[in-house]
Design brief:
The protein has one domain (3-201): Rossmann fold (3-Layer(aba) Sandwich), CATH 3.40.50. The chain contains 9 helices and 6 strands, in the order βαβαααβαβαααβαβ. It has helices spanning 15-26, 33-43, 46-57, 63-73, 92-104, 119-132, 140-154, 156-163, 176-186, and strands at 3-8, 30-32, 82-86, 111-116, 167-171, 199-201. Strands 2-3-1-4-5-6 form a 6-stranded parallel β-sheet, with helices on both faces. Strand 5, helix 9 and strand 6 form a beta-alpha-beta unit. Helix 2 packs across helix 3 (46-57) and helix 4 (63-73) packs parallel to helix 5 (92-104). The two termini are 31 Å apart. The structure holds adenosine monophosphate (AMP). Residues 11, 33-34, 37, 54-55, 58-61, 66, 87-88, 90, 94, 137, 146 line the site of adenosine monophosphate.
Length: 205
């Protein structure tokens, strides 16, 4: 049975960094749809050219296109033991499509990990990212748009996974190492257990 994780959270919550680390430590590919799209844009492929204006504006690429992208990606051989999705699903139709895909293979999502962050910390992280990463879709205007899009289209997934008892909430305020240790607290390295209940990890725990 493949181990399937979803990492959720607003842009700037640090989920990409944690996903990279978590995937590497467990030998699971870290599938970042944003990184896939940026690679296609940089390479000037047909897909890249098609999505460039949308990505640069901070809007979402169409569900159909993203679902096709993920359907192909998770069939690749490096996903034979599982995979970690970062940035997908981002809308309810995407989450439903993923459920349908996994139903076809009788597979289940192990956990949807939500990286919670206060607005204040989020804003200061995004401002730092503008200077360090120099991403074309990281202007102030685009970042604000991406947060709005997250709140409107992606945040409903929190309830979607909560209702399925798959949501695990991690307090993402703090250093990369602090967040990492909260994550490892919930998913210890030698753990093969599944996580059927909603739980929350924060500074207070
Ligand atoms: P990210 O690196 O995850 O923040 O994604 C960067 C951009 O890629 C987003 O702002 C969207 O334009 C696009 N994108 C990434 N993943 C998705 C998705 N699952 N659905 C729609 N658009 C996406």
């Amino acid at each position: 049975m493949r181990r399937i994780f979803i990492f959720l959270g607003p842009p700037g919550a640090g989920k990409g960094t944690q996903a990279e680390m978590f995937g590497a430590e467990r030998g699971l590919p870290h599938i970042s749809t944003g990184a896939m799209l940026r690679a296609s844009m940089d390479a000037g492929t047909a897909l890249g050219n098609k999505v460039k204006a949308i990505v640069d504006s901070g809007s979402l690429v169409s569900d159909t296109l993203m679902i096709d992208l993920i359907r192909d990606r998770i069939l690749q051989s490096d996903c034979s033991h599982g995979f970690l999705l970062d940035g997908f699903p981002r809308t309810t139709p995407q989450a439903e499509a993923l459920d349908v895909l996994l139903k076809e293979t009788s597979e289940k999502i192990e956990a949807a990990v939500l990286f919670n962050i206060s607005e204040e910390v989020l804003m200061s992280r995004l401002s730092a990212r503008r200077t360090t990463e120099n991403r074309a879709d990281d202007t102030t205007e685009t970042q604000l748009k991406r947060i709005k899009v997250y709140e409107e289209q992606t945040a409903p997934l929190i309830n979607y996974y909560k209702e399925k008892s798959l949501l695990v909430s991690i307090d993402s305020d703090g250093t990369v190492d602090e967040v990492k240790s909260r994550l490892l607290n919930v998913f210890p390295l030698d753990s093969s257990a599944t996580f059927p209940n909603t739980r929350s990890v924060s500074n207070q725990n």
